[in-house]
């Protein structure tokens, strides 16, 4: 079995001085997390039970098998935030990077289009792309409430497009709340099959539900192994304590960094296959913990690319950041001695690109540490379905522990809801007349503009 290894040494005071964490503070915080987790095991949050319950696996397998028999060429996924980021992360990590561009890399699976935005330009481009093959297009619509304006408007568009093809009802699946919501009403009226979110599991914690797993099953990804990875991480968290517990240690470090004036958490994958994981993490941490005037600010970098854009800031800028590095590289790409007449590049000749990649990673760790910028690293022996499931569950538990330490509820998002209300009011939804008066007043207020 492949492993994940976390190195926290460069986040400690003995490595980075005053910007690091002192052993006593770490020990006390680990104790608080351990005490909380013992109580939590008696009444776990719903997302914590997903690796063992395998929620709706039989239903997902049945629908994915049925989809494969329709010989689909396009998979269109409508969803936003937690309804799409997990799926994008899985696809980027486990499918060929040129999956959509080259049919020979698809192994008979469809192209995919994840529409997590309503930008009209992209919407038009995707519609133009799939229209010639609309009769071989499969649509997955994801919204817990069914009232998300972006997703329901997209569905209104694609529902009419799909109706122009024969047998379209067999190629539309809705993923929504088990009992309530507009998508259930639509499904009953239109005859579309439905998969569900388990009760109590919100969007940003839903990647290991049909939200992330059903589209993955359609693409031939082993969702059982992904769930096994999450179960393995859950067992690790139960089994170990203090620093030996990866979730405890990571949560304690990120919390103490925030409390000690390092509110910016930079997640920096040295592995392009995990770049989308950084986007998933940003939503998870920001939307879960940014409340009551509290919460860290998660940001994203990608190595080695951002060594040439952001690393300067991380090394010599304000010491208000903690860098979380993710590393994995297994493919070997030999570097030939192409310019044997140039002594300046001879050190690269007959080496391997993987070795250079690792050297860049280690060089970044060293430069950060020597400059007093705290950092820690998680190394994946392999980017696999199993390890990805473990990584998802790890960061979900870390976020839960940090919510407890910050005394905020990591499972609501009141700041997001207000924006949704104003959007509905501006668009003229009934029942929002009072809010419409408020938005009209705001939009009519004087503005100071500069026009080019």
User: Based on CA inertia axes, which overall geometry fits?
Assistant: globular
| Contiguous uncertain segments of 5+ residues | none
CATH architecture of the largest domain: 3-Layer(aba) Sandwich
Count of DSSP-assigned helices:
17
Structural classification: alpha/beta
What would CATH call the homologous superfamily of the largest domain?
Glucose-6-phosphate isomerase like protein, domain 1
Largest sheet: 5 strands, mixed
Q: Work out the helicity level.
A: 40-55%
What is the fold named in CATH at topology level of the largest domain?
Answer: Rossmann fold
**What is the radius of gyration computed over CA atoms, rounded to a whole number of angstroms?**
24 Å
Residue share in β-strands: 5-15%
From the N-terminal CA to the C-terminal CA, the straight-line distance is 59 Å
Taken together, the total number of domains comes to 2
Please provide the count of β strands: 10
Can you write the helix and strand succession as a string?
EHHHHEHEHEHEHEHHHEHEHEHEHHH
Please give the order of strands in the largest beta sheet: 1-10-9-7-8
Instruction: Just give the CATH class of the largest domain.
Output: Alpha Beta
Topology:
Elements (H helix, E strand, L loop, with lengths): L3 E4 L5 H4 L6 H20 L7 H4 L3 H12 L5 E5 L6 H10 L16 E5 L4 H11 L6 E6 L6 H14 L9 E5 L5 H9 L3 E3 L13 H9 L4 H17 L6 H14 L4 E7 L4 H15 L7 E4 L10 H6 L4 E7 L25 H18 L4 E6 L4 H22 L7 H13 L6 H12 L8
Parallel strand pairs: 2-3, 2-4, 4-5, 5-6, 7-8, 7-9, 9-10
Antiparallel strand pairs: 1-10
Helix pairs in contact: 2-11, 4-9, 5-9, 5-12, 10-15, 11-15, 12-15, 16-17
